[in-house]
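@channel sequence for tomorrow's demo:
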Amino acid sequence: MAEVLRLADEIGPDRLSTTDVARAIGLSQPAIFRHFPTKGALWLAVAEDIANRLQGSWAAAEAGAAGPHARLRALIGVQLSAISETPALPSILFSRELQVDNQALRDVFRGLLGAFQSRLVAVIRDLQAAGDMKRDVSPEDVASLLTSLVQGVAIRWTLGARGFALVPEGLRLFDVQMELLRAKEGACDA
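structure tokens (generated this afternoon):
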């Protein structure tokens, strides 16, 4: 799977062929099709591998963080790290393969996004219950804002030829967003 992701980053997910994959891993193209009956099945296996790795990373990030703010920051940080370590991810998410040609692939990524947002919502509820975050914004909306922050900085990083360090920049913007959402002493929540 790592070689497919490397190639997707190098030549683009839409231009990647099974011949490219076979050549890169030292197999014949028919050998690839013995493992994956279609190119779509290969992409699905890649997506499932990404999903498994991300879910494990999220669980580890949360387990290693003390308190809801640290958990939320760790979740955002691990998501940014995953993109930084697998730079083909943004390209895959906006590829024709995902958007048009492979419903199963889209379903895996849609489910992954939903799982990530569910984790965010749970932590945001904890922050709001502790009085550390404004309660007049729904946890689901805050989760969408934070997910959009990750996606936006990842797109900017990709379009900017990776000209800045993704994780520190994303966490800097996360801190700005959190300050805007922080419950202020003496303020009334609706």
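heads up for whoever presents: DSSP finds ten helices and no strands in the chain.
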